[in-house]
Amino acid sequence: MIYIAIIILGLAGIILCLKIYTKKKAERPLVCMLGADCNTVLKSDFSKFLGIGLEIFGFIYYGIVTLSYLALFLFPQLQTPLIYFILLGLSMGAFLFSMYLIAIQAFVLRSWCSWCLISAGLSTLILIITFIGATLLQLDFVPILSAIKHPLVMIHLIGFALGVGGATINDVMFFRFLKDYRISHAENEVLKIMSQVIWFGLALSIISGFGLYLQNIEALNESSKFLLKVVVVGVITLNGVFLNLSIAPHLVKLSFKDSSTKTSQATHLRKLAFASGAISFVSWYTAFFLGTIKSLPFTFIQLISIYVVLLTFAVIGSLIMEKMYCTKSPSTNTD
């Protein structure tokens, strides 16, 4: 029954994604059952990830889920803890991404799409049923995770490489784009893609890190280095959510040319953008450093204190740089 339920949900997701894709392809409006404007959401800047429509990712996800559980239903011998763990991780990733998109609709777009909410509901039900299936089957994932430890470590490192590289390039490009004292729409698109690369790297790091954590829970819970790394990843996540929900949608307003913006909301946005970028940069390099060493001769309190000091200096430095850009702005030239 569990497999059949998920297959039905997967097919419903495929039909939904095809409906959205065909409507967007034909440039025809999509009627929203909530009475809202679905097209505002489906045509927004957040309707794509790495330049690909989200409905394409949804179609691929629901297709994989449907075919996988159909194969497990027809060929029970294929059912292994590894396969089930992969499907569970995939469903968890889809659920978290759906929650992120709901937050975008609620706090950024302030508009709802009934079809997007249905998709979020489908991914939530798939995750819940998958968890129930794992419980009923009494699957033990630890031996499987131990067997694939090296691939997990590789994925973990790739995730951090994408995160660190993306954060570095993002900051470099941000300051390069500010040479004309503003961020254009085209430049904002570049920064948005880099941000999505960082999010992808973070997702890989968290999912693979959770798999590694389950293999050695007791020892890691007593490791000050690991506890700090958890805190740092949490800061990266919260800072990324804040950056994407509160700053990124208004990034093109961060002009340094018009002196009138210095007393407007743009001044506040500029300061937040600089500070958030500094926090992201320092946090990613801190997490990467923690992942490359085996142990540190410090307590958790000592390590967290060092991290807070680094963040403080980074934020102060970023605000000084923001002030320097304002000072160098052509609008301040009184000749």
At a glance:
The protein is an all-alpha fold and 335 residues long.
Helix content: over 70%
Major sheet characteristics: 2 strands, antiparallel
Binned strand content: under 5%
As for the number of domains, it is: 2
Rounded radius of gyration (Å): 23 Å
Describe this structure in words.
The chain has 2 domains: 2-139, Up-down Bundle (de novo design (two linked rop proteins)); 146-332, no CATH class. Helix content is 76%, strand content 1%. The protein contains 12 helices and 2 strands. It has a two-stranded antiparallel sheet with strand order 1-2. A hairpin with a 2-residue loop joins strand 1 and strand 2 (52-53). The radius of gyration is 23 Å and the shape is flat. It starts with a helix and ends in a 7-residue tail after the last helix. Residues 258-263 have low confidence and may be disordered.
List the helices and strands and how they pair.
Blueprint lengths: L1 H24 L12 H5 L5 E2 L2 E2 H21 L6 H29 L4 H24 L4 H6 L1 H29 L7 H29 L3 H5 L2 H24 L17 H28 L7 H29 L7
Antiparallel strand pairs: 1-2
Features of this protein?
single chain; mainly alpha; de novo design (two linked rop proteins); two-stranded antiparallel sheet; 12 helices; 1% strand
